[in-house]
Amino acid sequence: MKVDYCVFLDAGHGGLNAKGEYVTAPSKQFKHSRGDFHKDGWFYEGVWNRVLTYRVAQKLNQRGISNIVVSHEYLDISLQYRVDMANWYYDNYKKGIYISNHSNASSSHLARGFEIYTSRGVTNSDKIADIHWRNVNDIMGDRIRYRQDQSDGDHDREASFYVLTKTKMPAILIEHLFFDNYDDASLLMDDEVVERFAEAQARTVIQYFNTL
Predict the structure, then answer these.
(1) pTM of the model
(2) Are strands 96-104 and 171-178 parallel, antiparallel or unpaired?
(3) What's the rounded Cα separation, in Å, for the pair 196 and 193?
């Protein structure tokens, strides 16, 4: 790598506390009528987000790339706290990028697919999103479905999410399939799928930092 930058990693929402209680919004979980998933058919988005985020952190550590997980081990700490932490380290430690990991849900429970969000307009976040889109396609191939918005010439979707607009560094938010869809949720529980998503992020970090 050409530069020594930092990756600020955010596992969306909350996880399981010491009592095994899921400490986040009800909308961030779904009970499937078949399969076990995290517990008795329940898929906990925040739990999965942490599995992936910690896998990414491990890969970055193995490659000597600085990273800070700004989400709590299990608490659903506020978006402002996560962003403020990243911004403080950006100002006082190292420059870098922000990656927020999620999986999605829909009102119909029928939607499927992978998508990346950036803030509105043309920014360096678009560059990261484009690199990551290519890496996920290369590594995942046709194992998953893809959701994109090419109206502005790229693949990412644009939104005014807090972590995309309040961070001082380029930031992307990734929706890894739909946890309330049985087929997508089953893919997310496959450790090889998690490994491929994590490897794609590690490669994206390296490739983007090498352009700076």
Answers:
(1) 0.97
(2) parallel
(3) 5
Per the listing, tokens 């909350």 go with 14
Q: What is the pLDDT along the chain (212 residues), one digit of tens a residue?
A: 777 999 999 999 999 999 999 999 999 999 999 999 999 999 999 999 999 999 999 999 999 999 999 999 999 999 999 999 999 999 999 999 999 999 999 999 999 999 999 999 999 999 999 999 999 999 999 999 999 987 777 899 999 999 999 999 999 999 999 999 999 999 999 999 999 999 999 999 999 999 99
Rounded to whole angstroms, the Cα distance separating 176 from 47 reads 13
CATH number at residue 131: 3.40.630.40
* Distance between CA atoms of residues 53 and 161, nearest Å: 19
Degrees, nearest 5: CA angle 180-184-187: 130
Residue 70 lies in a domain: yes
Q: Could you list the residue range(s) of the whole structural domain that residue 76 is in?
A: 6-209
187 part of a folded domain: yes
Contact present, 101 and 176 (Cβ < 8 Å): yes
Rounded Cα gap, residues 44 and 137, in angstroms: 25
For residues 79 and 74, what is the distance between their CA atoms, to the nearest angstrom? 14
Tally of domains within the chain? 1
> Do the domain assignments include residue 1?
no
Q: What are phi and psi of 46, to 5 degrees?
A: -60, -35
DSSP state of 96: E
In a domain, 202, yes or no: yes
